[in-house]
Structure formats: C-alpha cells, structure tokens
C-alpha cells in the first residue's frame, strides 16, 4: 500500500483539498475530484453516482466520517500532460477557487484508497 500516497502527490490530475473532521482536525491532502456523474465498477457491479466524489489515500484522512467537510481547492487549468493552459497573453487560466462539500459516505477499499461521497448540503 506504499504506492497509494505517492500516486496522489505526483499526479497532475489531482486537486488539493482540506478535510475538516467533526472534531476540528484538519488534513491537507491531494485527490481526484469528480463533480460530474460517475460510473463505478466495484467487483463487477456497475453503479451510477450523482453525487460528487473525492478519491484519495485512506492514510491521509484517518478518522474521516459522515460528519466531515471537505474544501476542494482549484488552481490552474492543466492539459493532459499536467502543464498549465495559457491565454493568448501567456497568462495561466485559473479554473475556479474552492468548493465546500459535506461527506455523506466514506467508502474505503482493501488497497488503501478511500472514496468520499459528497453533498453540497449537510445532512
């Protein structure tokens, strides 16, 4: 499971985020953020999910539960090679600032990844 944390730290497709647990503990992490509808294939079962997802290393967020919040930080728009996309004036394009979500489900797997199912509204 030593490959999980470096995968998220060295991947240009990841986004930085701050996870705030219900006790106020904060973790700065990187993960894959999916805001659009996703189709997952777990154990041969396909499921559609209409909630945003954040996938990260389980060891980065010990104690995460359904009362946690996550602030997904956006930075520069990147191409498929992880390089900043520039305007005609050679300025990097900023995608968005940040979004706050509430964790409504924590789904760890046996390989050290965890999928956080998110909602814009606290339950």
**What's the helix-strand series?**
HEEEEEEEE
Tell me what the CATH architecture is. Beta Barrel
Return the average pLDDT rounded to an integer. 82
Major sheet: order of its strands?
Answer: 1-2-5-8-7-6
Cα gyration radius (Å): 15 Å
List keywords for this structure.
mainly beta, Thrombin, subunit H, six-stranded antiparallel beta barrel, 5% helix
Give structural notes.
The protein is mostly beta strands. It has one domain (4-119): Thrombin, subunit H (Beta Barrel), CATH 2.40.10. It contains 1 helix and 8 strands, in the order αββββββββ. The protein has one helix spanning 4-9, and strands spanning 15-20, 26-34, 38-42, 45-49, 53-57, 69-73, 98-108, 113-119. A 6-stranded antiparallel β-barrel has the order 1-2-5-8-7-6. The mean pLDDT is 82.
């Amino acid at each position: 499971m030593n490959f999980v944390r470096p995968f998220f730290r060295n991947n240009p497709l990841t986004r930085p985020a701050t996870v705030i647990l219900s006790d106020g503990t904060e973790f700065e992490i990187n993960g894959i953020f999916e805001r659009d509808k996703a189709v997952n294939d777990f154990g041969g079962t396909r499921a559609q999910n209409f909630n945003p997802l954040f996938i990260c290393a389980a060891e980065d967020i010990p104690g995460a539960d359904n009362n946690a919040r996550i602030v997904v930080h956006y930075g520069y728009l990147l191409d498929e090679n992880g390089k900043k996309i520039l305007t005609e004036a050679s300025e990097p394009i900023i995608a968005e600032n940040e979004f706050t979500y509430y964790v409504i489900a924590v789904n760890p797997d046996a390989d050290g990844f965890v999928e956080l199912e998110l909602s814009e509204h606290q339950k």
